[in-house]
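Hello,

Our lab assistant flagged a job as stuck in the queue for most of the afternoon. It eventually completed. Since we weren't sure the result was trustworthy after the delay, we are filing this so someone can double-check. Below is the sequence as submitted and the structure that was eventually returned. Let us know if re-running is recommended.
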Amino acid sequence: MKKIALLLLISVIIVSFAACSKNAQAPEESTTSTTAATTEAVDKGADIDITVPASFFNEDDPATEELTEDQKSRGFKKATINEDGSVTYTISEKAYKELQKTMKTDVADGLNALTEDYPEIKKVEFNDDFSNIKLYVDKKTYEDSMAVMAVYQAGLLGQTYQAYTGTAIKDLSVDVNVIDNASGEQFEEAHYPADTEDN
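-- returned structure --
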């Protein structure tokens, strides 16, 4: 049940926090200009567009322009599917500020919950922007367990946080390192979103 709860948390974060950018049709804009433009929009009380990368969707959770009741209650006003498969949501200023307050805590809680969901994972460490996440595991039991899914879940959570806080889609970068808790030796690593796109 805990694994299901974590997957639901990831789904909520993906839909609610998304990737923050001024305009889905301008991916070449720098992170700095995107963040500044978004902040200006908030200050003026205007609606804000947040764009979710196409890689955040799959067959089980396809991109759609129909808002859920939960999204509507959180202040989302509309959704638009872009040519590249990403989805741009229009959200109210109030909703944006509320999501901004809880984003970091929710992602950190989701990562820390991995130790409860997967007994093979003994400890989780991460830096301030979630660009580097370390999973300390019992190597003997990890390789033949479902805990390998935790690497993907960690990468997805890290990308979501970065994107929402102003990182352009093309600049998302999360390294997940798997370390033997007993020896301290790193024996597996993954990079996102590149590894996501390769699968």
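-- support follow-up --
The delay was a queue issue, not a problem with the job. The result is valid. Residues 1-8, 15-43 have pLDDT under 50 and may be disordered. Residues 32 and 166 are 8 Å apart (CA to CA).
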